[in-house]
Amino acid sequence: MDLFILGDGHSLLLVWPDGFAERLVTENPDEPVVGETLRLVGPGRRVTALAKLIGGRTIVVGDSAGGVSGWFSARNELARTPDQLVFSEAHRLAPQGAAITSIGVSTRDRTIVTGDDSGAAWVRNVTAQTVVARVRAEPAEPIAAARLAPKVDGLALLTASGALHTWSLDAPHPDASVRALFGKVWYEGDPAPSHTYQSSSGDDAAEAKYNLVPLIFGTLKATIYTMLIAAPLGILGAIYTSEFLSPRVRAAVKPSIEMMASLPSVVLGFIAAMLIAPLVRDALPGVLLAFAGVPIGVLLAAYLWHFAPVRVMSRLSAGGRLATIMAVTAAGAWASLRLGPTMESALFRPSEADVLIRAGAYEPVPRDEWPAWFAALSAVSDREVRRLREAGLSYRDGVVVRPAGTLDDPEIAAQVALHGFDEPDLRAWLDGVIGGPWPGWFLLLFPAAALAMAVVVTRVVDPAVRAWDRRRGPAAEAAVELAKFLLALGATAALAAVGASALAGLGLDARDSIFGAYQQRNTLVVGLAMAVAVIPIIYTIADDAMTSVPDSMRSASLGCGATRWQTAVRVVLPVALSGVFSACMIGLGRAAGETMIVLMATGNTPIMSWSLFDGLRTLSANIAVELPEAPKDGTHYRVLFLCGLALFALTFTINTAAELIRQRVRRRSASL
Predict the structure, then answer these.
(1) Is domain 213-284+509-670 annotated with CATH 1.10.3720.10?
(2) Of 102, 169, 182, 506, which sits with the fewest C-beta atoms within 10 Å of its C-beta?
(3) What pLDDT is stored for residue 355 in this prediction?
(4) Cβ within 8 Å of residue 54, ≥6 positions away
(5) What does the pLDDT look like over 144-176, one tens digit per residue?
(6) Any residues with CB less than 8 A from the CB of 422 and at least 6 apart, and which?
(7) Measured between alpha carbons, how far is 253 from 356 in angstroms, rounded to an integer?
(8) Is the pLDDT of residue 667 over 80?
(9) Rounded to an integer, what distance in angstroms lies between the CA atom of residue 551 and that of residue 568?
């Protein structure tokens, strides 16, 4: 029998040769209790070698069939153990083929050497699950002892006959493998395998975590959200200035927008961190409402504009129209910020059960009354907690609880009034503390429903209205158009509500994807700040592409009775589409390579989440932050160069695909 004191400081592990083990919890040293009983090897196998890795938390087990595995304690809040830890097999290494007789461990990393009774020895890295080297003692006889040099640059084997064999090792980066860099790895103490990047730690015994997937994910996430904001604004701005502004006004507007591209990234990052982030934090409902409120306000003003007298419209210059549009846009943004609390009150008001739980008025639910699906979980995530709340329960301090008492209780009412637990709170909804999934889906589906209704109005409603009466005057025509817009707006809200109800009924929650717990340095702030840097690039190139379309095509379209908007969208834009597409791809490259804005506005946290309100870390920002501190030629140093190579490969792949698409679009445009 072998005895190990585990590195958590309050656990002992007893291992018997037949593979059974007991983990004793010694939080009270005078009365140790059995935390769990488990089997470390498969049926018919025996434990033939044991070793404890640096840090003392991971136990390496070798068996009589050549199997090698790594075990450590992982936290599980639902475990029936006294300390809520579960001793788990986290690493199953490649089998060696003969009984393992000795295991030697490195004193600086997770490298081990395993010797077997055939005289073979394999040098491995437990975290990366790689085989670094294979050697064999000659003549072949069982290995009695296998040891690694302190710097993992040498290996010594002692055979059963007393013969000593030594080798030099050249394995400078044993913890860097394809699996460790791009696959899921079960790191010590974590509840499950994950993609994790953490290049430094306060403990010398900590594992190296150089997984690049969170950095690649962060780069793509920042780029996608930035382009969702920048591409529509840049293209629409180019359409307006190239097709509707007079040359004199355009000559002043275009250089002004192009000058935005000269703003240094560090200045934009500073503005994002010091101004945009606090504004979004303090007026979050209004900021979210502005994404729909500003376009609706501009469209409403456009429909109302048709009621203006002809003499007023004819006297207004192109510059005056531009100033009017800017004023309407500013008014829409102001109204959205003012109406944000109203939207918050309508959508994000807590239920009575939510209020009671937040006020501390709850009681524990006996474990045998827990929902079966919840009791079977190995780990509790925010998704499961929200699902539990839909059943009228909640989760507090590792225990399922339910509301107790009423809001009429003076003590409960005092707590509610003191902390405002009954007030609408978007941030609390994002954190999963109150409310169901319906409001989030409604907000997300509203833009999609608006696009769907625009298609329906264009393809179905407009032809029907034109066929109904062709002899309306200007005022009647304006009234009909305004009525269509208002009805379409109501239908959009109804369609979004129906879709939200359907998705909520399926058990889906937007807080598992686009929405999530709010962090002040988040992706929304990055998208807004980076859009300021990308919009001028997209706008300039798209405007040049549209301006280069021959005027004869515009004249032919206008001569056939098309409006200027129809001409811009159905004639000019398709002809200039290859140039517009190139503008978007150049803007995408600018967003993918951005460093300082991301670094200053997101907190630089390598999190894999699509949430608008989580931080991220990009490949370029990671290089900028860590390269000055990385030891030359070390694993960390080389991983940073690999980050650069990954960024190059990512942008090269995207640009190559974009060029192929552009060439195809250009050939189609040439035939128009």
Answers:
(1) yes
(2) 506
(3) 87
(4) 105, 106, 107, 108, 109, 110, 205
(5) 999 999 888 899 999 988 889 999 998 888 888
(6) 350, 355, 407, 416
(7) 56
(8) no
(9) 11
Instruction: Determine the Cα angle at 278 with ends 276 and 281, to 5°.
Output: 105
DSSP assignment of 9-26 equals: SSEEEEE-TTSEEEEEE-
For 409-456, the three-class secondary structure string (H helix, E strand, C coil) is: CHHHHHHHHHHCCCCCCHHHHHCCCCCCCHHHHHHHHHHHHHHHHHHH
Residue with the two structure tokens 């109302």: 304
CB-hemisphere CA count at 13 Å for 368? Answer: 0
- The pairing of strands 362-364 and 59-63 is unpaired
Instruction: Count CB neighbours of 439 within 10 A.
Output: 21
Q: Which secondary structure element, helix H or strand E, spans residue 143, and what is its range?
A: strand 143-148
- The tokens describing 322, both together, are 């531009």
The two structure tokens encoding residue 193: 């395998």
Burial of 115 (0-12, 13-18, 19+ CB in 10 A): buried
Q: Write the DSSP assignment of 325-364 as a string of letters.
A: HHHHHHHHHHHHHHHHHHHHHHH-PPPHHHHHHHTT-EEE
End-to-end, the C-alpha distance of the chain in Å comes to 84
Q: What is the token pair recorded at 426?
A: 């978007």
Q: What is the pLDDT of residues 329-343, one digit of tens each?
A: 999 999 999 999 999
Tens of pLDDT, residue by residue over 394-447, are 888 778 888 888 888 888 888 888 888 889 999 999 988 888 899 999 999 999
Distance CA 211, CA 264 (A): 31
> Would you list the domain boundaries of the chain?
41-75+84-209, 213-284+509-670, 352-423
Question: Mind giving me the DSSP string for 64-84?
Answer: TTS-EEEEEEEE-TT-SSTTS
Burial of 74 (0-12, 13-18, 19+ CB in 10 A): buried
The string of DSSP codes covering 105-123 is: E-SSSSEEEEEETTSEEEE
Nearest CA among 224, 231, 272, 266 for reference residue 522: 272
Pair of tokens at residue 406:
């009423």
CA-based nearest residue to 537, from 572, 577, 580, 578: 580
Query: Residues 6 or more apart from 116 whose CB is under 8 A from it?
Result: 66, 96, 97, 98, 99, 100, 101, 142, 143
Element containing residue 366 per DSSP (H, E) = none
CA distance 467 to 605: 58
pTM, 2 dp: 0.89
* CA-to-CA separations, 500 to 420, 444, 466, in angstroms, rounded: 28, 9, 33
Q: Which residues pair with 103 in a beta bridge?
A: 114
CB burial class (10 A; 0-12, 13-18, 19+) of residue 355? Answer: buried
CATH number assigned to the domain with residue range 41-75+84-209, chosen from the 4 options 3.40.50.10800, 2.130.10.10, 2.60.40.10, 3.20.20.70: 2.130.10.10
Q: Show Cβ contacts of residue 210 under 8 Å, excluding neighbours closer than 6 positions.
A: 175, 176, 180, 181, 197, 199, 635, 636, 639
Q: Which residues of 128-143 are buried (b: 16+ CB within 10 A; e: fewer)?
A: bbbbbeebbbeeeebb
Cα gap 282→600, rounded to integer Å: 19
Q: Which residue is associated with the tokens 């702030």?
A: 525
432: region left, alpha or beta (phi > 0 left; psi from -120 to 50 alpha): left
3-state secondary structure at position 402: strand
